[in-house]
Write a structure and sequence with these properties.
- The protein is an alpha/beta fold.
- Helices cover 37% and strands 16% of the residues.
- The strands form three sheets. Strands 4-10-9-8-7-5-6 form a seven-stranded mixed β-sheet, sandwiched between helices. It has a four-stranded mixed β-sheet with strand order 1-2-3-13. Strands 11-12-15-14 form a four-stranded antiparallel β-sheet, with helices on one face.
- Strand 11 and strand 12 form a beta hairpin.
- Helix 4 packs parallel to helix 10, helix 11 packs parallel to helix 13 and helix 12 crosses helix 13.
- It starts with a helix and ends with a helix.
Length: 427
């Protein structure tokens, strides 16, 4: 593997992060497990950054992709495309957005790009509201609105972005408040930022649960309270569901549904394709049709990715994987809470989207972030045959997001490995 790592470093950018002191080459997968090139088997609790939503090598997806590849792989949006239309129809049906239209892209970054284009064009403004600690992609425009400095390498921007409180409670200035008081304080902050913006805001973009930010969120109802203020001023609300969509939170199909109001635009990616390059935007027809120029997409909604994504979405719905997340997730959550480790500062999340924030023991509340302990836990879980993710502003949060077909036995197996790994690295 050292030979492949050397080749990787020689030909790919130095700023591409790679997990582990001795990185692994994942060679194949099946169900909730993957195997590396040396034949080691791992229980996958990260799913390629929440992308393998159903299962590795899901037969229904493999069959759909194989059959479509035997017919035609690519054509672009200049031609009629039955798999793209059928997928868009299915997404519109489950979107809960009235009079929905769908634009498909190759990634979540491009989905957020498209949503920002729609909102800024319709509102004739380049001013955007975003949450602190947020992440919305790696393009020039989405980096410009990202509120997490560790993922934003430039201050140059096509947007004027204002950041508001509310994306996380554990390290917030409003920490310690009740949920109702927290919402009230965040809404007051929003109003103050709006008063000081000096112009019309095009849109507010928010992840219901911040992914790269370490699976943080405000209380349920917060975004709905924001929406009341936004709509009084005609500001559009974009819900970034790239990581929270498709039933991952268990309680709802979309993260925004926990907040008592409906967004104007919804962006999605990752889990819909189960590893295929698929993303998109959902919006009311009046918003989606508002662009005053022609456009195409070369790769968005290709016949191949659309066929695979449609098979994946149908499987997810037919097997009630949202319900499975609601059943299996709480056992993981409570098992983590039962550890009582001095290096665990916070346990949060919903369904099969859980975060464990690690802190240095004896440093008070909320405690000093401990990225070195998070890195150590990743190494320890790898040795025990478990893959988990890492994130947060300080790199000190374990991100747990297995495929939504996870069984109760697999959840117990992964929990045991995680508990043992946390105990191993505790000073």
């Amino acid at each position: 593997m050292s030979e492949l790592l050397a080749r990787t470093r020689a030909v790919l950018p130095s700023w591409l992060a790679i997990y582990y002191q001795e990185p692994i080459e994942i060679e194949r997968g099946e169900g909730r497990h993957v195997w590396d090139a040396d034949g080691n088997r791992y229980l996958d609790f990260f799913g390629g950054i929440l992308t393998t939503a159903t299962a590795h090598a899901l037969p229904e997806v493999t069959k759909a992709v194989s059959e479509q590849a035997g017919r035609i792989i690519h054509s672009s949006t200049l031609y009629l495309n039955r798999p793209m239309v059928e997928l868009a129809e299915q997404i519109a049906e489950v979107s809960a957005i009235p009079d929905a239209k769908v634009f498909l892209t190759p990634s979540g970054t491009e989905a957020n790009d498209a949503a920002l284009l729609l909102a800024s064009s319709l509102r004739r403004s380049n001013q955007i509201l975003a949450l602190r600690n947020s992440y919305h992609g790696r393009s020039f425009s989405t980096i410009a609105i990202t509120g997490n400095s560790s993922w934003s390498p430039t201050s140059l921007s096509p947007f004027q972005t204002y950041y508001v409180h509310g994306g996380q409670q554990f390290r917030s200035p409003f920490a310690g408040l009740s949920d109702g008081e927290y919402i009230a304080a965040s809404v007051a902050d929003l109003k103050d930022v709006l008063d000081q913006s000096g112009g019309d805001i095009a849109a507010f973009i928010a992840e219901p649960i911040q992914g790269v930010g370490g699976f943080t969120s405000g209380p349920d109802g917060l975004l709905g309270a924001f929406a009341e203020v936004l709509r009084e001023r005609g500001i559009l609300w974009i819900s970034d569901e790239v990581q929270t969509g498709w039933g991952r939170t268990g309680e709802h199909f979309w993260g925004w549904q926990a907040h008592g109001a409906t967004p104007d635009l919804v962006t999605f990616a990752k889990g819909i394709g189960n590893g295929l390059s698929m993303g998109g935007v959902i919006a009311r027809a009046e918003i989606m049709d508002s662009l005053g120029a022609n456009s195409i997409s070369t790769f968005g909604g290709s016949p191949l990715t659309s066929a695979g994504a449609l098979a994946n979405l149908r499987y997810l719905l037919e097997h009630d994987l949202q319900g499975n997340a609601a059943r299996v997730g709480p056992g993981l959550f409570e098992g983590l809470r039962a550890i009582g480790s001095p290096i665990i500062g916070d346990i949060r999340g919903k369904g099969l989207m859980l975060g464990v924030e690690l802190v240095r023991p004896g440093t008070g509340t909320p405690g000093d972030p401990a990225p070195e302990l998070a890195t150590a836990v990743l190494e320890a879980t790898k040795r025990r045959g478990l893959l988990v993710g890492k994130g947060g502003l300080h790199g000190n949060v374990l991100r747990i997001a297995p495929p939504l077909t996870l069984t109760a036995d697999e959840a117990a197996e992964g929990l045991a490995a995680l508990v043992a790994s946390i105990e191993e690295v505790t000073p």
